[in-house]
């Protein structure tokens, strides 16, 4: 009371009234400001929710065991997981089917482990769920590869159907890989066999949409296994197999003639093959990828260099017809305007080229509807930190850096139309949650990545790169994402022109979250 009286003694009554109105006005404007700010935040998140609507989500691991595999089912919009049948033991392996709302539909035990079985892959083709297993038999020294098949209601269609019996591999399993045709109606499972100095040999099995094995065999190329590297394998809508490979003529590459790229086309009906060389004369092919369209036209695109295989100076583009005819071949150098994002004017004048940019061999090239392509590359490099551990030993710790993503639009004639740069800087000693996932919609390409921008929260962010090369501002994908979560770009999948499945771990890896997101509205 004494303090209040003292204040009133200092300020006359009129001043006190003015002070009252002054502070009342200040409080009013502060409330108005916070109201407007809250409204803006609401509108921001509301628009985000509409642009990136969470359609459904699945959180596995709170009461159930974490799965080892998951696959999307295009026929009914659900997913299938494969993993231990219980949290207490991994002895039994089970399938679990979830519907389009990601609610559990059924669980089916597949097999019992015996210490010699390895799951090669889980896949869904048409309305068939297929589990491929390699089992090692020590006494015979062989590996049997077989598969189980189920329909989408969990009914068993095939049990331990034998695919092959092969001599033991070093890792005691065949470790099959798989790829689907562009129309999702053909499935090829394959294995690049290790033959050392013998011919390059690729084992394959072709299934149709009904889950039937329609063709299988071995693709034998004339190159020694230790000098040939398979970059990627694809299957066409017609069921033929295409391989992009790199043959090394020398152990150490110092000249553009020390290696060469080729596309090998294998007809699964006649079992005949054809080599289609990819040549650039005295220029180095730094990175390369290829895609097939519905008619078996081959689109080959990537980057070239005038100096070496670890640099890029421009783009290359080739189109090969279904009959093996080279219909288009073009290269174009990067202009100074694009190079200036990474090089000084002096470096550009001296012919310096970009380093540390790599393409994903399967997803680094996107076909455009007009016959052009969109190239996607990422800045990647490794640094090392040396430290002394508790025992006094010096340890080199590898740090993986995944930085900017560059998108380059190439016309059907091979001309660069525009570049777009999605800037980010990711680094960690664990690679799994780094890099990006891309989805293609009617408005353009969406690039998703886990990141902590300056003065922004940790989240999965995305940028939209429009068909004209314009880049949207960086936007958060989730409202409740937090530190400790781990986003897994390579397990994410675009399921249609508007939706994708986003995958991340939370609760220190104890919960797997699969979120169906609508990234683009009609």
Describe it.
This protein is mainly β. The strands form 9 sheets. Strands 24, 25, 26, 27, 28 and 29 form a 6-stranded antiparallel β-sheet that branches. Strands 1, 34, 35, 36 and 37 form a 5-stranded antiparallel β-sheet that branches. A 4-stranded antiparallel β-sheet has the order 2-3-4-5, with no helix packed on it. A hairpin with a 4-residue loop joins strand 12 and strand 13.
List the helices and strands and how they pair.
Blueprint lengths: L1 H9 L2 H39 L1 E8 L8 E5 L4 E7 L7 E7 L5 E9 L4 E9 L2 E10 L4 E10 L4 E12 L9 E4 L5 E8 L5 E10 L4 E12 L3 E8 L5 E8 L10 E8 L6 E6 L5 E9 L5 E8 L5 E2 L1 E7 L5 E8 L2 H4 L5 H5 L4 E2 L1 E3 L5 E3 L5 E16 L5 E17 L5 E7 L3 E3 L8 E4 L3 E8 L7 E8 L8 E2 L9 E2 L5 E2 L4 E8 L4 E8 L4
Antiparallel strand pairs: 1-37, 2-3, 3-4, 4-5, 6-7, 7-8, 8-9, 10-11, 11-12, 12-13, 14-15, 15-16, 16-17, 18-19, 19-21, 20-23, 21-22, 24-26, 25-26, 26-27, 27-28, 27-29, 30-31, 31-32, 32-33, 34-36, 35-36, 36-37
Query: Strand fraction band?
Result: over 45%
What's the shape? globular
Largest sheet: 6 strands, antiparallel
Put simply, the count of helices is 4
Portion in helices: 10-25%
Please mark out the parts with pLDDT under 50 across 5 or more consecutive residues, or reply none.
Answer: 1-22, 31-51
> Over all CA atoms, what is the radius of gyration?
28 Å
Number of separate strands = 37
Distance between the termini: 66 Å
Helix and strand composition category: mainly beta
Mean pLDDT: 88
Which descriptors apply to this entry?
522 residues; globular; five-stranded antiparallel beta sheet; 4 helices; six-stranded antiparallel beta sheet; mainly beta
């Amino acid at each position: 009371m004494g303090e209040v009286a003292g204040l009133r003694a200092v300020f006359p009554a009129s001043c006190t009234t003015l002070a009252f109105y002054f502070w009342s006005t200040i409080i009013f404007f502060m409330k108005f400001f916070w109201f407007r700010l809250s409204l803006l935040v609401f509108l921001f998140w509301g628009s985000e929710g509409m642009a990136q609507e969470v359609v459904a989500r699945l959180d596995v691991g709170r009461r159930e065991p974490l799965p080892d595999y998951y696959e999307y089912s295009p026929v009914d919009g659900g997913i299938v997981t494969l993993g231990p049948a219980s949290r207490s033991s991994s002895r039994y392996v089970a399938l679990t089917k979830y519907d389009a709302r990601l609610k559990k539909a059924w669980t089916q035990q597949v097999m019992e482990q015996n210490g010699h079985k390895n799951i090669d892959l889980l896949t869904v083709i048409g309305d068939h769920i297929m589990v491929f297993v390699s089992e090692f038999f020590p006494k015979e020294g062989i590996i049997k590869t077989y598969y189980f098949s189920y329909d989408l209601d969990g009914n068993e269609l095939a049990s331990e159907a034998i695919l092959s019996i092969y001599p033991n591999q070093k890792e005691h399993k065949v470790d099959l890989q798989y790829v689907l045709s562009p129309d999702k109606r053909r499935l090829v499972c394959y294995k690049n066999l290790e033959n050392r100095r013998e011919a390059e040999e690729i084992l394959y099995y072709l299934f149709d949409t009904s889950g039937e094995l329609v063709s299988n065999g071995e693709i034998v190329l004339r190159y020694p296994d230790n000098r040939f590297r398979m970059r990627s394998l694809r299957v066409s809508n017609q069921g033929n197999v295409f391989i992009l490979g790199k043959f090394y003529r020398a152990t150490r590459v110092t000249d553009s003639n020390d290696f060469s790229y080729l596309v090998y086309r294998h007809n699964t009906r006649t079992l005949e093959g054809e080599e289609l060389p990819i040549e650039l004369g005295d220029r180095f092919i730094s990175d390369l990828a290829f895609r097939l369209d519905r008619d078996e036209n081959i689109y080959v695109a990537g980057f070239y260099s005038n100096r070496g295989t670890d640099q890029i100076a421009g783009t290359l583009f080739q189109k090969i017809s279904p009959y093996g005819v080279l219909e288009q071949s073009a290269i174009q150098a990067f202009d100074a305007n694009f190079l200036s994002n990474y090089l000084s004017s002096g470096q550009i004048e001296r012919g310096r080229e970009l380093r540390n940019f790599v393409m994903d061999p399967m997803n680094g090239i996107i076909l455009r509807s007009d016959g052009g392509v969109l190239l996607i590359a990422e800045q990647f490099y490794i640094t090392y930190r040396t430290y002394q551990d508790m025992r006094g030993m010096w340890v080199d710790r590898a740090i993986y850096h995944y930085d900017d993503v560059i998108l380059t639009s190439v016309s059907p004639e091979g001309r660069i139309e525009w570049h777009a740069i999605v800037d980010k800087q990711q680094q960690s000693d664990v690679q799994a949650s780094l890099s990006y996932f891309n989805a293609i919609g009617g408005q353009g390409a969406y690039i998703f990545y886990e990141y902590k921008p300056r003065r922004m929260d940790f989240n999965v962010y995305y940028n939209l790169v429009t068909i004209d090369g314009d880049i949207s501002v960086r936007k958060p994908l989730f409202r409740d994402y937090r530190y400790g979560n781990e986003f897994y770009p390579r397990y994410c999948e675009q399921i249609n022109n508007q939706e994708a499945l986003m995958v991340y771990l939370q609760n220190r890896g104890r919960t797997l979250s699969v979120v169906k997101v609508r990234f683009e509205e009609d």
